[in-house]
Amino acid sequence: MNKKKFDLCLVIPDIGGGGTQRVLMNLVKNWLNQGKKICVITFFNEKADFFELPIAVSRKSINFTGESKNLVVAIWNNLRRVKSLRSMIKAYQPKLVLSFLGTTNVLTILATFFMQIPVIVSERSDPTRDSLGNIWDKLRHLLYRYADIVTANSHGAIVALEKFVDAGKLKYVPNPVCIEEPFRPLTYSFPAILAVGRLSYEKGHDILLSAFSKFIHQFTQWRLVIVGDGELRNKLKQFAVNLNIDKYIIWGGMQLDIFSYYNAATIFVMPSRYEGTPNALLEAMGCGLPVIVSNASSGILQFVKNEETGLVVPVEDVETLYLAFCRLANDELLRKRLGEKARQKIKMETQCAYELWDEVLNINRY
């Protein structure tokens, strides 16, 4: 029997700036510290990278991202992706394959049929709230049962997955968060509300801007810092102009050193319409920030208990969000208490996350 070349093969669409990619980077660093040999396969090449993989990690890119103009072309393109992925996994000869994100999970399961390699897929959202599209949703329902283990980062997602995956294969594993980053705060001459996330409809930045427009009339020394990019960037900037609050807003774009923003902020806000378990929230809590979140998902509410580890407001409730801003702006002791409780919560969860990942993958047997 051939000796396996790698302990783990990780499959992910890209190494872009998303929360799942940040989770992968944290896991890679942890497993490298354990002496594990890791390879990564991406569908996009290095041009799409935001994070830089450690030099010890071997990486291959399928780099086949042709557009699918119709169903026949889509099927053909994805069969080519599956074939390429299978060839790369065979070449790497890993002991385990771990895949991230819905469509990539489906393709990875197809690529590893009859290869006698354990396959773990990581679902990063609640399937009842985050559709992949009609055909991909059906494939997810059909194929996830063939994975050896399916992980999810919220209890709500586990409940949803139980409808089409055997409960014995499902494992809850929270996001690992690096909270021991050195404090490198930016220097602000003002108190700041920070929002981090993709500029897309589900993130609720329009709700945030509406609430902030009410808040800034009373708290003129404050500023709103928005880190992230996305398809709604220009529309949101114009909305801020229409509200006459653009001079109070800093648009940070994508940031590699996100911790400097957390450590410079006064309050963190996440006004999402719907969410999975957002890494940005956990990082902010880990940095000791008082947080305001919407009750958009069970993943958020697992970590933020109202009045204990943060403040929770109803989804799309501009008035309540505005009042939460006012309350924290006026109460430094409350900010400190919520921030300390939040950091304690994340410190416990992070240690648990790494242990659970090792348990799920049984990585320490190698």
Automatic annotation (TrEMBL):
It comes from the Bacteria. The chain crosses the membrane at residues 96-115. One of its GO terms (molecular function) is glycosyltransferase activity. Residues 18-180 form the Glycosyltransferase subfamily 4-like N-terminal domain. Keywords: Glycosyltransferase, Membrane, Transferase, Transmembrane, Transmembrane helix. Residues 192-344 form the Glycosyl transferase family domain. InterPro entries: Glyco_trans_1, Glyco_trans_4-like_N. One of its GO terms (biological process) is carbohydrate derivative metabolic process. This is Lipopolysaccharide N-acetylglucosaminyltransferase. It comes from Coxiella burnetii (strain Dugway 5J108-111). The lineage of its organism: Bacteria, Pseudomonadati, Pseudomonadota, Gammaproteobacteria, Legionellales.
